UniProtKB/TrEMBL annotation:
SUPFAM superfamilies: Immunoglobulin
Keywords attached to this entry: Signal
Name of the protein in its database record: Ig-like domain-containing protein
Secretion signal, residue range per the UniProt entry: 1-20
Annotated InterPro entries: Ig-like_dom (IPR007110), Ig-like_dom_sf (IPR036179), Ig-like_fold (IPR013783)
PROSITE patterns noted in UniProt: IG_LIKE
Highest taxon above the source species: Eukaryota
Domain Ig-like: 37-126
Length: 274
């Protein structure tokens, strides 16, 4: 009776015991972002600890696009998914290479590994990947200080070049990083690329103040980082007063001129009379 109970326990837990010694240290290596038009290799590391591999399957979202089954001939199989082109010549049980990726395939990628009998233990890992269109050029800073004389803030706009997705923007004032900005907005062009503009409003600027150097930086994942040119904003200097003779007012000057003009006419008349 004791023997049959122990045997039944082992039989019921045999799959769990086998599963516990399979698929250790599974790790997924997928770049967070890749340039559009480039090739990318996705890899899936695992340790079966002596068990045989049954299959490796790759998915984008819920759509399978690549399968590796060592017992089949050929072991690789590719499924048609729009925008995904597998390089079978270099893909294997641990990695799959995608050729000339387009931004439409951005999303969640999954690797599913299954051990062979008797456990058939299966483990699945997923990670996001974005196919990015990197900006061409550098960001541009424009400044509007027309409202300063009315007590309104100094406005600086940073325009990032078009990209997909929109770039991240950071402002710097006198080489000091500014934590955030006041507002931002995104516009799309005919190529469905997104151009981001961020606005920084600086209050308390006016009167007598030191020049400000404003610069911004645009980044897109680890694929792109560029800085704008520094824009130096100087305080408005007062308009110079009209140049007056000896610092007199215009009224005093006119009176001074009139008196000497009358005296000059009197001298001319005196000469003629004599």
């Amino acid at each position: 009776m004791k023997f049959s109970t122990a045997f039944l326990f082992l039989l019921l837990n045999f799959e769990k015991i086998c599963s516990s010694i399979s698929l250790k240290g599974m790790k997924l290596n997928i770049p967070r972002a890749v340039r559009a038009g480039h090739s990318v290799t996705l890899s899936c590391e695992y340790d079966l600890e002596g068990a045989q591999l049954y299959s490796v399957k790759w998915y984008r979202e819920n759509d399978e696009f690549y399968r590796y089954v060592p017992k089949e001939e050929p072991p690789t199989r590719v499924f048609t998914i729009q925008g995904i082109h597998v390089d079978v010549s270099v893909s294997n049980a641990h990695s799959v290479t995608l050729l000339s990726v387009g931004r439409d395939i951005s999303g969640e990628f999954q690797c599913e590994v299954s051990a062979d009998a008797p456990s058939f233990h299966t483990q699945l890992l997923s990670a996001p990947m974005t196919v990015a269109v990197v900006p061409a050029g550098v960001p541009l800073v424009t400044v509007d200080k027309t409202g300063l004389e009315h007590g309104r803030p100094l406005i600086a706009d940073c325009h990032a070049p078009p990209s997909h997705p929109a770039a991240n923007i950071t402002f710097f004032v006198n080489d000091e990083k500014v934590p955030g900005y006041t507002s931002d907005w995104i516009t799309s062009n005919e190529d469905q690329l997104e151009q981001k503009t961020a606005r920084l409003e600086l209050t308390g600027v006016g009167g007598s103040w030191d020049p400000l150097r404003i610069m911004c930086e645009a980044t897109l994942f680890r694929l792109y980082r560029a800085k704008s040119l520094d824009i130096e904003v100087k305080p408005d200097t007062p308009h110079p007063a009209s140049v007056l003779l000896m610092g007199t007012s215009s009224t005093d000057f006119n009176l001074f001129y009139h008196r000497y003009y009358v005296l000059f006419l009197e001298l001319i008349l005196l000469v003629i009379w004599v």
